[in-house]
Design a protein that fits this description.
It is a single chain. It contains 23 helices and eleven strands. It is an alpha+beta fold. Strands 1, 2, 3, 4 and 6 form a five-stranded antiparallel sheet that branches. A four-stranded mixed sheet has the order 5-10-9-7. Strands 8-11 form a two-stranded antiparallel sheet. Helix 14 packs antiparallel against helix 19 and helix 17 runs antiparallel to helix 18. It is globular and about 110 Å long.
Length: 557
């Protein structure tokens, strides 16, 4: 990768800092493999220092977690996303990265409010009757404070940290370039699509930076539960909400993270588990737009048994096709259709290179293990983990939207079992799956699919004559071109180019040596004046060329 790609001084300094932290935590080999030691000035010296700061007693996953924490909030959030990628990383990495938490200091109210107040043109204390300067919560992106409107309503202000956007944007720019570099240079990494993972991560993080977008997500989910009296979402106050601040109703009730308080309030824990599961499963299977992080900290329980969901910065969305594939997968497991399950996994991984027969055989073993477990002891999260382990063994990666979904499933089942140890996720999901199967085979749905199929067929037949005419015309004019993509072709052509350069240099050296030898054998009487000098010059050039050739071959390994 040309050094000109990193053409901003700030990016170079940050890249040097990233490389130094990775080296200090024992990842110097990775820095060398990516070529960052040659790209960033000053890092080469760091590579030769003793890596005394590395806590050698720690495991590689622990060192990675510490490195990400030291690199800052963008990398912490990247680690949190990677902790959901059990299809890419082994269990010890998943477990360790799952411990990543935003470790940020709280800002004083005056420092926090300065950016919003500059945009509004007035102090926030003039817009609200009262504001608690002590934060309720603080994260790497925003800080939350309780306030009271002039009308007396209790609200919460979620205010973005000043200056956080350019810092995160710079890190995202570097991470994307590093992902592209790793995909090109590290053998076997391309199949896991690191650039695609980072691109989706950047999109998700930018969505979190827009606090008004969180309000739009909240209102969309609230509209989907308009007819459900027990599933609630805080109302948004749009007159004060914007990209760097949102204002929502303050939630009353017992925090889901305080299970002792939930029990002390006399609430029916089994009922709460069932209602919470029904709400999230409806989001996933019926609405296809869901809270992607339904852990106890994002839930409040109210005295009437109602459930309030908060913090919609991270949401997931499923296409109709993806949802149908998920249903087919689950019913393939239930119906012991290993071949069907294997085909869906290969489709998700977007590869034609998988060994479908071997994969189907391993999936069949997985299904046999699942069917041997009594329903009361069945854990959906364990089933997902086993299935993802099969995918990882075959080097198959899940699409990003499904990794968000697996995270939601695991969080939901954990929250359900915390409330009710006998909570059965499969039984809770069964009515939704059955409804989807009935809907897919309902007369109106069959008619819709048939109509779409006829429309697509007619469109293809209508366009075919024109496409054939263009193809024949291009062939007749000599403009028809055949393009062939070779995996890692650019890298191999580069190696071939270097090989041909060395071969050419070898031929030139041999020609100089032979030519100079012939000239030197001619007697001085028959040789023009000064030709002997050129013969010596030829010998000298051959020696220099030979030294360069040997050094080049040795340097390349």
């Amino acid at each position: 990768m040309p050094a000109g790609l990193f053409n901003v001084g700030q990016d170079l300094r940050r890249l040097a800092e990233i490389s130094g932290i990775l080296i200090a935590h024992g990842f110097g080999d990775l820095v060398r493999q990516l070529g960052l030691d040659k790209l960033v000035a000053g890092v080469g010296q760091a590579l030769h220092r003793k890596e005394a700061t590395v806590p050698h007693l720690l495991s590689a996953p622990e060192r990675l977690r510490h490195a990400l924490e030291e690199l800052g909030p963008t990398f912490v959030k990247l680690g949190q996303i990677l902790s959901t990628r059990a299809d890419l990383l082994p269990p010890d990495y998943i477990s360790e990265l799952g411990r990543l938490r935003d470790k940020v200091r709280t800002l004083d109210w005056a420092d926090l409010a300065v950016e919003v107040e500059t945009e509004l043109g007035v102090p926030l204390t003039e817009l609200f009757d009262a504001i608690e300067t002590q934060p309720l919560a603080a994260g790497s992106i925003a800080q939350v404070h309780r306030a009271r409107l002039k009308t007396g309503e209790q609200v919460v202000l979620k205010i973005r940290r000043p200056g956080v956007v350019p810092v995160i944007e710079a890190d995202l720019r570097l991470i994307l370039r590093l992902a592209a570099l790793a995909e090109a240079e590290v053998d076997g990494l391309a199949r896991f699509r690191p650039v695609e993972i980072v691109t989706e991560f950047a999109r998700s993080l930018r969505s979190e930076l827009d606090l008004a977008n969180e309000c739009r997500n909240a209102e969309r989910i609230a509209a989907n539960f308009a007819d459900d009296p027990f599933t609630r979402v805080p109302a948004v106050h749009w007159q004060w909400s914007r990209e760097n601040m949102n204002v929502q109703d303050c939630v009353s009730g017992v925090p889901g993270s305080d299970l002792a308080a939930v029990r002390a309030a006399g609430l029916d824990l089994k009922l709460l588990a069932r209602r919470g599961a029904d709400a999230v499963l409806k989001m996933i299977f019926a609405d296809r737009f869901y809270h992607a992080d339904p852990h106890p900290g994002n839930v409040f329980y109210q005295p009437d048994g109602g459930i309030v969901f908060i913090d919609f910065g991270m949401v997931g969305q499923l296409t109709r096709q993806r949802r149908d594939e998920l249903v087919d997968l689950l019913f393939g497991v239930v119906g012991k259709r290993a071949d069907k399950v294997a085909n869906i996994l290969l489709r998700w991984a977007e590869t034609d290179n998988g060994d479908s027969a071997r994969l189907a055989s391993e999936v069949e073993g997985f299904i046999d293990r699942v069917h041997g477990v009594p329903l009361g002891q069945f854990h959906l999260s364990a089933m997902i983990a086993d299935l993802i382990a099969v995918m990882r063994e075959h080097q198959l990666a899940l699409p990003y939207d499904l990794t968000m979904l697996t995270k939601a499933f695991v969080s939901l089942e954990g929250m359900g079992r915390e409330l009710d140890p006998d909570f059965d996720m499969v039984s809770a999901a069964q009515p939704f799956l059955q409804d989807l199967i009935w809907q897919r085979h309902a007369p109106h749905e069959l008619a819709r699919r048939a109509r779409e199929g006829v429309e697509d067929g007619l469109a293809l037949m209508t366009a075919l004559p024109g496409d054939l005419h263009k193809l024949i015309a291009a062939a007749a004019d000599g403009h028809l071109k055949l393009h062939i993509d070779l995996d890692d072709g650019e890298k191999y052509f580069d190696r071939l180019d270097r090989l041909m350069a060395r071969l050419t240099m070898g031929i030139v050296i041999a020609a100089l040596t032979i030519g100079s030898s012939i000239v030197m054998t001619v007697s001085g009487a028959e040789m023009a004046v000064g030709v002997s000098f050129f013969a010596l010059l030829g010998f000298f050039g051959a020696v220099l060329g030979g030294i360069w050739l040997l050094w080049s071959i040795w340097r390349s390994g």
